[in-house]
Amino acid sequence: MSASNWIQALSEPQENGIVVFISGFLFALGIYHLLLYYQNKIKSYLFYAIYALLVLAYTFHRSKHFILADMVAGYHSSIEFLYDPVKWLYSTVYMFFALSFVDLDQYYPKFTKHLKLFLKSGLGILGVLLLIAIVLHNKQILDIAYNFGFLPIIFILSLYILYLIYRSKSPVKYYLLIGAGSYLLITTYSHYLTYTGRPFRILFYGATAFEMILFALGLGYKQKLIYAEKNLWQELVIKEHKKNLLIKEDLTKKLGEEVSHNKKQIKTLKQEKRIAEQKKLALAYSKQILQLRLQAVQAQMNPHFLFNALNAIKNFIIKNDQKKAVVYLSKFAKLIRIVLEHAKLSETSLNEELELIQLYVDVENIRFNNTIDFMIEIDDDVNLYSVKVPPMIFQSLIENAIWHGLAPKTGKKKLSMKISTNFPYIKVIIEDNGIGREKAEEIRLQKNRTLKKESMGIKITEERLAVYTQAFKHKFKINFIDLYDDQNQPAGTRVEIFIPVA
After folding, report:
1. Entry pTM
2. Ramachandran class of 492: left when φ > 0, alpha when ψ lies in -120 to 50, beta otherwise
3. CA 111 – CA 192 distance, rounded (Å)
4. What's the pLDDT score for residue 378?
5. Segment holding 495, helix H or strand E
6. Alpha helix positions (H), 416-451
7. Under a CB-based contact definition with an 8 Å cutoff, are residues 154 and 98 in contact?
8. Residue 157: which of 180, 187, 126 has the closest Cα?
9. Considering its fold, how many domains does the chain have in total?
């Protein structure tokens, strides 16, 4: 076949089966990616499927040798009436696909927001114009609006968006740049040939097929990156969990050795003491020390808190929220390490204790969408490094304030710690603007829950302070004060803790 015959054959894609091939190709891609969207709920798949099916609706009826074209042959005039609306629609869906495909809102959020608003407004205008055209039976309204209004604007926007995509750091941007750029150039040239009386429609169909193939490859590559990233985060979580298990095992081993050592001391005390009452007191005292240490470890390693934190990390990973997952995982891992390390200490500096409390509140606050305003105020005369306190001594009080006072509250949630010198004490005030202790008790009673967990945490705190301060001249004090507003309504709770330093 001569070159002129080849050109003649290719210039009539409706006659040589190319339209049939492209239509089947678009139908297969549209249905396949519609099923992928149903399975993965990723918007890029949905936009791609709608775009493919709209292009199919624009092309399939043109072939004279296609069964679907024969089925709609009697509605040719109606189909021609919808040419411009269909092109308007698939151009709009195309833009939505491009934005979603490269996640442009991560790089240019303001522009993306305004562009989406423009596209949605365009759909509204299209609906109004289509209604007017139907009522007036005038297709020319749609033709003028599309060719002299929408098409020039969308063409300029497409070029600018391609430029923004080129500047972005999206790993799949070149799939879209090559596909869309080739499509724009080739179809523009094809439209030029059509308007100059030299139609060569094979260019349009070839550009469409090439673009759809590149987009499909890009979607597949993007899905591969998503799965790889999820697997990486899962490996990191597992790795951190294994590290924490090793720390826990080491702590358990050391506690066992300490218990064994204390048992030997008790045995020695029994042998040395001659008076039965002295033996009894020594045994009771040693037993109390061991129980308090075990209870302290259990209070610090709250299984409910660990489960909620790990579940929050899992949800961030599932939602592909990389930033929140990184921040939460880092803070959670650091908190667990510090808690496990402090569990074997009898005392720590007030500075380290406040750092731990800040980290604990940060971890809890992420799960509350950062709605808790937490503040620590320290008087200038307080030496945070020389003042010693039992480790995690304030955690249960902070936890009570968050879960029983602030969690049920609506509106602004405030939590504060104020540290000052009140010789011979260090005075610590923990204050929240929650619902108050009476209301919290009512809520728990309605849910058939008791105050056992809260009172146990407070009891352990008091017992630990009692043991810690037994060698001091002055004893500790804890005061619980209910706060009320001007209308005598509950306005929160204040806890005052006095820890002796001499």
Report:
1. 0.46
2. left
3. 31
4. 93
5. strand 490-500
6. 437-446
7. no
8. 180
9. 2
- Report long-range pairs for 121-124 (Cβ below 8 Å, ≥24 apart): 122/88, 122/92, 122/150, 123/89, 123/92
CA distance 218 to 235: 26
Closest CA to 216 of 408, 4, 34, 3: 34
Q: Which domain holds residue 148?
A: 3-229
Q: Are residues 189 and 285 in the same domain?
A: no
313-361 per-position pLDDT tens digit:
666 667 666 677 777 778 777 877 877 777 677 788 999 999 989 988 9
Is residue 363 in some structural domain?
yes
User: Are 285 and 375 contained in the same domain?
Assistant: yes
Nearest to 457 by CA among 294, 289, 296: 296
Helix 83-102, helix 173-195: angle, nearest 10: 160
Which residue's structure tokens are 């099916």?
53
How far is C-alpha 40 from the geometric centre of its chain's CA atoms? 17
If we measure between CA atoms, which residue out of 40, 127, 61, 115 comes closest to residue 88? Answer: 127
Residue 500, strand partner residues: 425
Q: Is 133 helix (H, G, I), strand (E, B) or coil?
A: helix
Instruction: Note whether 220 and 278 are same-domain residues.
Output: no
Q: Which two tokens stand for residue 20?
A: 């049939």
